[in-house]
C-alpha cells in the first residue's frame, strides 16, 4: 500500500530535537510535496505561580514567534508550504487532538524524541512517548 503524504504535523518547541524533527519533515515534504504544519503547544502558567505574569507572557510570545519564524524560513526556503498553529494546554493531548481532527486530515506526525522538558525519561520524552502510543496515524520519531 502506497499512501501519499500530503499533510505533515510537526510539534515544535525550539529545542534542537524539535528542529531536527522539522528538518526531517522537510525532507519528507520535498519528496512528497506535502504541506507542513508546525504546532507549538504552550503550557498554562498557573496564576498563583507568577506575579509578573504579563512580562512572562510577553517573553513567551516573543519566543514562540521567533521559533515559528525560523521554522517557516527553513520550510519555505526548501519550497515547502508552511502553516503554524499555537495551542494552549498539555502538549501531548493537543498534538493528538490536532492530528486526529478530521478537517485537518494529517498523514504523518514527525516529532523530536525529546523537547525542552527538564525531566529526562529513559528512552523517549514524555510527549513523544504519549504521541506514539495515542496516535492513530503514523509517527516518525527523530533523534
Radius of gyration: 15 Å
Biggest beta sheet summary:
5 strands, parallel
Strand content: 15-25%
Low-pLDDT segments, ≥5 res: 117-124
Number of strands: 5
Order of helices and strands: EHEHEHEHE
| End-to-end gap | 27 Å
**Order of neighbouring strands in the sheet with most strands:** 3-2-1-4-5
Overall mean confidence score, pLDDT: 86
Number of discrete helical segments: 4
- Basic shape: globular
In terms of structural class, how would the helical and strand content be classed?
Answer: alpha/beta
- What is the quaternary state of this protein? single chain
* Proportion of helical residues: 40-55%
Q: Can you characterise this structure?
A:
This protein has 143 residues and is α/β, with parallel strands linked by helices. Helices cover 42% and strands 20% of the residues. Helix 3 runs parallel beside helix 4. The relative contact order is 0.23. About 6% of the residues have low confidence.
List the helices and strands and how they pair.
Elements: E1 7-11, H1 16-32, E2 35-42, H2 53-77, E3 82-88, H3 91-99, E4 108-112, H4 126-134, E5 139-142
Parallel strand pairs: 1-2, 1-4, 2-3, 4-5
Helix pairs in contact: 3-4
Compose a concise summary of this entry.
The protein has helices at 16-32, 53-77, 91-99, 126-134, and strands at 7-11, 35-42, 82-88, 108-112, 139-142. The protein is of the alpha/beta class and 143 residues long.
Notable traits:
20% strand, single chain, 5-stranded parallel sheet, globular, 143 residues, 5 strands, alpha/beta
Amino acid at each position: 500500500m502506497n499512501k501519499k503524504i500530503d499533510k505533515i504535523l510537526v510539534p515544535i518547541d525550539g529545542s534542537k530535537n524539535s528542529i531536527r524533527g522539522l528538518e526531517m519533515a522537510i525532507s519528507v515534504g520535498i519528496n512528497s510535496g506535502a504541506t507542513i504544519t508546525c504546532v507549538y503547544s504552550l503550557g498554562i502558567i498557573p496564576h498563583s505561580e507568577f506575579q509578573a505574569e504579563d512580562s512572562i507572557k510577553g517573553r513567551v510570545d516573543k519566543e514562540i514567534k521567533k521559533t515559528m519564524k525560523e521554522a517557516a524560513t527553513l520550510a519555505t526556503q526548501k519550497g515547502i508550504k508552511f502553516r503554524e498553529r499555537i495551542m494552549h494546554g498539555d502538549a501531548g493531548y493537543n498534538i493528538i487532538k490536532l492530528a486526529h481532527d478530521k478537517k485537518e486530515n494529517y498523514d504523518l506526525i514527525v516529532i523530536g524524541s525529546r523537547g525542552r522538558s527538564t525531566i529526562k525519561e529513559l528512552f523517549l520524552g514524555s510527549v513523544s512517548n504519549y504521541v506514539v502510543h495515542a496516535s492513530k496515524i503514523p509517527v516518525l520519531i527523530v533523534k
